[in-house]
Specification:
By secondary structure, the chain is mainly α. It has 20 helices and eleven strands. The radius of gyration is 31 Å and the shape is elongated. It binds glutamic acid.
Length: about 475
């Protein structure tokens, strides 16, 4: 395959949710598997929605996932600048070219006039669109108005032209221009709109494949018309399927769709997030094989990107995450758990705790609920114990303490054999006895293996906790 030059073109208007980050992942895979380039281009032309800190977050997401970019912010590149706000002159120059060629025109209409027009059209049941009021202005009128006030530049969309392209994901698409508005290309502040800037940059940066969400399909005819008017070659186009929430409506925060950074902070591993994202709209075997980025570079096939919408299922992400947590060595996992443990935690203690909680964990943030008792004595009440334990828990705990007290070799084997002996001697129900011990030591009915936990806690603390409850 010829090397792909692809771009991820985020608008720094907020931190993208996981669905938008999928585009970056697909871009990156395509660039890496073809020996091409992955470009990050910052589409920062909407100044009213600009959030300066969001770009750092977007780059942090790419860094966290391991999606390195070849050209763009921080790394530069042969087509810099990669910030659209720094390329205004070029867009203005192209807008002029379009005006000169008759594919665009000046519009001086006030926002009041446009607002009224919209109201009237709506009231008449028409699709709101610009009525070309300024299209018929004479050259001298235009010059006069240009001196007097503000203006925008609009695209003069053909009235009835079929725009047809073969989308590498969606197949053949044909859209007639008759319902399309005369899009504003250049705003009164001299900034381009997305439509002008994206075409100019994709051309100037020699992008070979445009990969973006399906929501941009309806804009594509405008872009095709721009390419055609400028005599530029059109890149290949892929529109990725929409991601829906489990209720089949557009994915939103309501469905738990957050940014990759939010998921990271909740304790999802990058490997799980990558696999989760790649299967949102792409299929491989039975869609459950977990693959490393390197393996994905090998097997990713854009022909297997589906047309139909993908459905976001957080249970799948949880499952992937649990799997990757279990695949980590204790040492690796302990390192990942550190941010979730009390600050200043002793690393050797963390390594001892890690294997005890590994099998039960879905997210790293569960460290607190699963392992908090290693750091702080639980607050347990007799009432709670009474509710959970059927037998004579006071007796269980008194005898347990007496049995544990003389143990010198404080190891799991020894602890277990002594306690089992005690249970047998008294003919107590094993489950009930250990539940009482569990509650006394860890404050919860769901804990890591309790005898192993006692080893980590140390004899003194174990006896103190039992004593405190008694
Ligand atoms: N800036 C656009 C966005 O954030 C990019 C769309 C495109 O890739 O063409 O969605």
């Amino acid at each position: 395959m010829k090397p792909f030059r692809v771009r991820f073109a985020p608008s720094p208007t907020g931190v993208p949710h996981i669905g938008n980050t999928r585009t970056a992942l697909f871009d990156w895979l395509l660039a890496r598997q073809t020996g091409g380039q992955f470009i990050v281009r910052v589409e920062d032309t909407d100044r009213s929605r600009y959030q300066p800190e969001s770009l750092e977050k977007i780059l942090e997401i790419l860094g966290f996932l391991g999606l390195s970019w070849d050209e763009g912010p921080k790394v530069g590149g042969p087509y810099q600048p990669y910030f659209q706000s720094q390329r205004l002159k070029r867009y203005q120059e192209v807008a002029q070219k379009l005006i000169d060629g008759g594919a665009a025109y000046y519009c001086f209409c006030s926002s009041d006039r446009l607002g009224n027009l919209r109201q009237e059209q709506k009231a008449a049941g028409q699709i709101p669109r610009y009525d070309r009021h300024c299209l018929s202005l004479s050259k001298s009128e235009i010059e006069k108005k240009k001196k007097a006030g503000q203006y925008v530049v609009r695209l003069k969309m053909p009235d009835n032209q079929n725009f047809i392209w073969t989308d590498l994901v969606q197949g053949r698409i044909a859209i007639n221009s008759k319902d399309l508005d005369d899009q504003v290309l250049l705003k009164s502040d001299g900034f381009p709109t997305y439509h002008l800037a994206v075409v100019v940059d994709d051309h100037d940066m020699e992008v070979s494949h445009i990969v973006r969400g399906v929501e941009w399909i309806s804009s594509t005819p405008k872009h095709l018309f721009l390419y055609q008017s400028l005599g530029w070659q059109i890149p290949q186009i892929m529109h990725l399927p929409l991601i829906l929430g489990p209720d089949k409506t557009k994915l939103s925060k309501r469905h738990g769709a957050k940014s990759v950074l939010d998921y990271r902070d909740e304790g999802y591993l990058k490997e799980a997030l990558i696999n989760f994202m790649v299967y949102l709209g792409w299929s491989y075997q039975d869609n459950s094989k977990l693959l490393s980025l390197e393996e994905l570079v090998e097997v990713f096939d854009y022909k297997k990107i589906q047309k139909q919408n993908a459905v976001f299922d957080i249970k799948k992400l949880d499952w992937f995450n649990g799997y990757y947590i279990r695949m980590k060595s204790d040492k690796e996992l302990a390192k990942l758990l550190k941010p979730f443990a009390p600050s200043g935690v002793n690393e050797s203690l963390l390594i001892k705790i890690t294997p005890l909680i590994k099998d039960r964990m879905v997210k790293l943030s569960e460290f607190e609920s699963l392992a908090g008792f290693f750091f702080e004595a639980p607050k347990v009440t007799g009432d709670f114990l009474a509710k959970k334990i059927k037998g004579d828990y006071k007796n269980y705990l008194e005898k347990a303490a007496q049995t544990l007290q003389p143990i010198e070799d404080w190891q799991e084997k020894e602890i277990t054999s002594r306690l089992m002996g005690l249970i047998e001697e008294n003919n107590w129900p094993t489950g009930d006895f250990f539940m009482a011990l569990r509650i006394a030591i860890a404050g919860s009915c769901y804990t890591p293996p309790i005898n192993d936990s006692m080893v980590v806690l140390g004899k003194e603390r174990v006896l103190k906790r039992i004593g405190a409850l008694l």
